Amino acid sequence: MTLERMNMESAPLKSSLLIRPVSADCNLRCDYCFYLEKAALYPQTKTHRMSQKVLETLISQVMQHTAGPVSLAWQGGEPTLAGLDFFMQVVELEMQYARPGQIVGNALQTNGILLNEAWAEFLRLYKFLIGLSLDGPSALHDHYRRTKNQRASFGLVYPQIELLRQNMTSLSMTSLSMFWW
Ligand code: SF4
Predict the structure, then answer these.
(1) 11 pLDDT tier (thresholds 50, 70, 90)
(2) Which atom of ligand 1 is nearest to the CA of 35?
(3) Which of the listed residues 29, 30, 141 should we mutate to test ligand 1's pocket, taking the one with most ligand atoms within 8 A of CB?
(4) What pLDDT is attached to residue 174?
(5) Own/partner pairs for 44-53, CB < 8 Å, 24+ apart?
(6) Does 5 score more than 70 pLDDT?
């Protein structure tokens, strides 16, 4: 029996990872956020980004040590702060390290503010499942979900629904204040 076959026999049939590539960095300051305070764990750095080396190690290891499908959920903070180039690298590495026939799924949970045409096209092309955080009508949404400067964010997020729809991305809506009330 080959070493690779022995490794695969003990490998998980599928793997699901939740990844925070920008730690707690975010362009919003939602009242109910339980995660922003985690930035205090790294007081010496103001901006937190997953390095190329960590990204490649993470993807190569999960792909090569999982017998079947791999599902990666990208969350924050706000994961789009990592930049589109970062996510292009994600899919390149997934293609590079995927085992033959291995299915890979990506999900992105975002507040939507940084999305634009280039993002939407990329997300559609690689079939990301998008979770867009919107807390309902503007009065409700803006009550809790405000920018660093305490500006309302509904007007920044709502148009992104149409952008994603036009690009036929797989979209689900997440409402946090529904759970908060
Ligand atoms: S968008 Fe998410 S991570 Fe950012 S402040 Fe709001 S709840 Fe927290």
Answers:
(1) confident
(2) 8
(3) 30
(4) 74
(5) 48/22, 48/23, 48/24, 48/77, 49/21, 49/22, 49/25, 49/82, 49/86, 50/19, 50/21, 50/22, 50/82, 50/86, 52/89
(6) no
pLDDT of residue 78: 97
The residue written with tokens 């990329």 in the block is 122
pTM score, whole prediction: 0.90
Give the pLDDT mean for 44-64. 95
**Nearest alpha carbon, ligand 1 atom 6:** 30
Structural domains of the chain ordered from first start? 3-180 (3.20.20.70)
Rounded to 5°, angle at Cα 118 from 115 and 121: 100
